[in-house]
Specification:
Layout: H1 21-26, E1 41-47, E2 53-57, H2 60-65, E3 69-73, E4 103-104, E5 110-116, H3 119-128, E6 132-135, E7 148-149, E8 160-163, H4 166-172, E9 175-183, E10 195-201, E11 204-208, H5 214-225, E12 232-235, H6 251-263, E13 267-270, E14 286-294, E15 300-312, E16 334-343, H7 356-374, H8 378-384, H9 402-413, E17 425-426, E18 432-443, E19 449-456, E20 461-464, H10 474-486, E21 493-496, H11 513-537, E22 552-555, E23 558-561, E24 564-570, H12 571-578, E25 582-589, H13 593-598, E26 602-613, E27 620-630, H14 637-656, E28 688-693, H15 711-728, H16 739-743
Parallel strand pairs: 1-13, 11-12, 15-16, 20-21, 27-28
Antiparallel strand pairs: 1-5, 2-4, 2-6, 3-5, 7-16, 8-16, 9-14, 10-11, 10-13, 14-15, 17-18, 18-26, 19-20, 19-25, 22-23, 23-24, 26-27
Helix pairs in contact: 7-15, 10-11, 11-12, 14-15
The structure holds dioxothiomolybdenum(VI) ion.
């Protein structure tokens, strides 16, 4: 049970700089592919060049004959895993391709693997395999296959949720819109591509591989290779980005581990940028139809949100976009429904703000369209539909400072000066200007984690949890929480993380890592202090002698009686008297089921955008993007602001840049590199402003943390799209919004 009287010391709330910053900028931080064990072989796999069909021929002899090539693995070798790759060893796992058969299910699927003494020899060996295919017509667009109803939901893929009477809501509407929005496939494209260095020692496996979920990944690998989970050591101290794609073991990683096992030597595999488009997850395409109605006063009578979402031909993960309409606006009736469509693409997966990013993009635009139809200012329209309790369920929010976010964001942006009519604002040079806004919304989940805190004889401490820092700043924010749990200054606390042999730090995902791992660390500190106090209470020479029943607190390296800072003793003195070199405390954190049941828990925010559109070329620039967010307690304002900015830039990317495009003939993605898969560069990002609104939340978890990793995307897409409409009068309902969409005749 979490401590409900959590105390905070001086570290939390400080804008501490990144602990890993120096190591990263000097190159001292080692990433998975930096490892190079003795005797290591290099693996290169051949990605399928078609999306559907079978591999008819591989020139294995030529590849084997190439100097330096040690081994060629193809489906004909029947490489075998101990566990069934179709199984689900953990809640978050997908069927993986490890050369089980010669069927091609998506472009980029591994169809053969070459091991060689050098990366060059492995690369050339893979090229020499010169695959020939029997190709079938690929299905890569949402209309290329029949939709199916979602009965047996995969994770993140609910079927249908209905509250109230949607038909009555439609009938009661005075103003209504029915609009369809499309979102494209998007790929995570973390800067560090997926990589593994696998080394076997009998039935023990050591992996250097970036992971957002160390213990869960170990369990999955252990299952697949038929060994106990404790035999797998996974080292993942640093990640060059994850965004969801590094939370789940993928085919190429498993294949490289299998190759190491068969070859009896360590193996390294690192994906190329191009290979990132296929086997390691993506955000699946959606088509969303929203039917919204409101009464004469602008009060929503219904939000009816249907999503058609793509999944692979062999696995289930749907971008659960319609869920974004649950829990936010006070509508008379709510309906969220999903259908799936099976395509010849790699299995989609969680990608930063999975579901909500796509769903809120469409919802916030549809809200803007209805506000316009009703003749109401978009912010006023949202305030008229402000939910004081969770729509549908009536549950109270654990906390909700969204009204403050609207106020502060609007004030900072200058929203009150916005003309209602679109296409009316222009710069003196003719540039069209538009203002739009959107509500940001993301759930605040919490997982389970464990941690250990060791007080040392010199009065310093070491805290440990096998968490994951994918760049968000966990090394720093978690150390701050731990320091407060121990009552020590931050620089007296050493923090260790990123190795699976440490206590399970849970999943770095769902924006829940700081709350989860932080909760465990704080609890571990509290446990160590309690033990230390009880030790002192037995020491006749200690000022705490006999104070065992009073309860203890810690501050500045001293334990004192709860509520009496004058009666205390130094950590180091207590340990010295006891002749101990260290004292260990342990802690765990998870959310009580009752809180999950009784409260709606979300982060909220409001985003305001100004765009400028060139009157002749229709080039779109986001000039200003102002976001105000309420996400509970902020542990490190510098890092939280950085996360929120990052999210807002993802939103900008979603609105105007990102899209993976398939060649309809082969099913291959034609822009599978960072030159043509467009993401914003610095010149695209201007005038970004982040405001945070403090919330005291005693329900969400003991620390009051809601999470900031994903919410920044959610309001930003709609705000920018609505601003483009406001600038031009053109409503583009397909993301990303492109120049040609604005150039085309209306
Ligand atoms: Mo995430 S998509 O929870 O890393």
């Amino acid at each position: 049970m979490p401590d409900t009287h959590t105390r905070f010391g001086s570290s939390s709330g400080q804008p501490a700089t990144r602990r890993d910053g120096l190591a990263k900028v000097t190159g001292a931080a080692t990433f998975a592919a930096d490892n190079r064990p003795e005797g290591m072989l290099h693996a290169v796999y051949v990605p399928a060049a078609i999306a559907r069909g079978r591999v008819a021929h591989l020139d294995v002899e030529r590849a084997r004959a190439h100097p330096g090539v040690v081994r060629v693995m193809t489906p004909a070798d029947h490489p075998a895993l101990a566990g069934d790759p179709d199984d689900k060893p953990t809640r978050f796992s997908f069927r993986i391709e490890v050369l089980q058969d010669d069927t091609v299910r998506y472009a980029g699927q591994p169809i053969a693997l070459v091991l060689a003494e050098t990366i060059e020899a492995a690369t050339e060996g893979a090229r020499l395999l010169s695959p020939r295919y029997e190709a079938e017509a690929p299905r890569t667009g949402l209309d290329d296959n029949a939709p199916f109803d979602v009965e047996e939901p995969g994770f993140g893929a609910p079927g249908e949720t209905v509250h109230g009477d949607p038909e009555a809501g439609h009938a009661a509407a005075i103003h209504a819109v029915e609009v369809t929005y499309e979102t494209p496939p998007q790929y995570h494209n973390a800067m560090e591509t997926h990589a593994v260095v696998a080394e076997w020692d009998g039935d023990r496996l050591t992996l250097d591989t970036p992971s957002q979920a160390l213990a869960m990944s170990c369990a999955a690998y252990a299952h697949l290779f038929g060994i106990p989970a404790e035999n797998v050591v996974l080292r993942s101290p640093y990640l060059g980005g994850g965004f969801g794609s590094k939370a789940i073991p993928s085919g190429p990683m498993v294949l490289a581990i299998l190759a190491a096992q068969e070859a009896g030597r360590p193996v390294k595999l690192m994906l190329t940028r191009r290979q990132m488009f296929g086997p390691v997850g993506h955000r699946g395409a959606t088509r969303q139809t929203l039917r919204l109605g409101c009464d004469a006063d602008g009060r929503l009578t219904v939000i009816d949100h249907e999503t058609l979402a793509a999944t692979s031909s062999f696995e289930m993960f749907l971008e659960s976009a319609s869920n974004a309409s649950q829990g936010l606006y006070a509508a008379g009736a709510l309906r969220s429904a999903h259908q799936g469509v099976r395509l010849d693409v790699g299995t989609p997966g969680p990608m930063r703000a999975p579901g909500e990013a796509s769903g809120s993009a469409a919802l916030e635009c549809a809200m803007d369209e209805l506000a316009h139809a009703a003749g109401i200012d978009p912010l006023d329209f949202r305030l008229r539909n402000y939910a004081e309790t969770e729509p549908g369920t009536g549950r109270p929010y654990s906390s909700k400072a969204l009204r403050d976010c609207y106020d502060r964001g609007a004030e900072a942006f200058g929203w009150s000066g916005r003309p209602m009519a679109p296409a009316t604002m222009r710069d003196p040079d003719g540039t069209r200007i538009g203002w739009g806004m959107g509500t940001a919304f993301f759930p605040s989940p919490m997982f389970a984690a464990e941690a250990r805190a060791t007080l040392r004889a010199d009065g310093s401490a070491m805290v440990e949890t096998a968490g994951a820092d994918m760049g968000q700043g966990a090394w720093t924010a978690l150390a701050q929480i731990a320091a407060d749990g121990l009552g020590l200054p931050l620089d007296r606390v050493e923090f260790r993380s990123g190795v699976s042999t440490l206590p399970d730090g849970g999943v770095a995902g769902g924006s829940g890592h700081t709350a989860t791992a932080g909760g465990a660390l704080h609890a571990a500190g509290g446990d160590a202090i309690r033990r230390l106090g009880e030790l002192a209470a037995e020491q006749p020479d200690s000022p705490l002698f006999g104070a065992g029943n009073a309860g203890f607190e810690a501050r500045e390296g001293r334990v004192h009686v709860a509520g009496d800072a004058g009666r205390g003793d130094a950590f180091a003195d207590i340990l010295a008297r006891a002749g101990m070199s260290e004292l260990v405390g342990s802690g765990r954190a998870s959310r009580p089921d009752a809180d999950t049941r009784d409260y709606a828990m979300n982060s909220h925010g409001a985003v305001f955008a100004e765009v400028a559109v060139d009157p002749d070329l229709c080039q779109i620039r986001v000039r200003r993007l102002v976001g105000a967010f309420a996400a509970g307690r902020i542990i490190n304002p510098r890092l939280a602001e950085s996360q929120l900015m990052g999210g807002m830039i993802w939103g900008l990317s979603f609105a105007l840049h990102e899209e993976a495009r398939h060649d309809p003939r082969t099913g291959r993605i034609v822009n599978s590199d960072l030159a043509e898969y467009r993401v914003p560069v610095n010149a695209d990002v201007q005038g970004l402003q982040v405001l945070t609104v403090h919330e005291d939340d005693t329900h969400v978890n003991a620390l009051g943390i809601k999470g900031v990793g994903e919410i920044g995307i959610t309001g930003s897409v709609g705000a920018i799209a609505n601003a483009v409409w406001h600038a031009t009068g053109r409503r583009v309902r397909r993301f990303p919004i492109r120049i040609e969409d604005l150039l085309a005749p209306a």
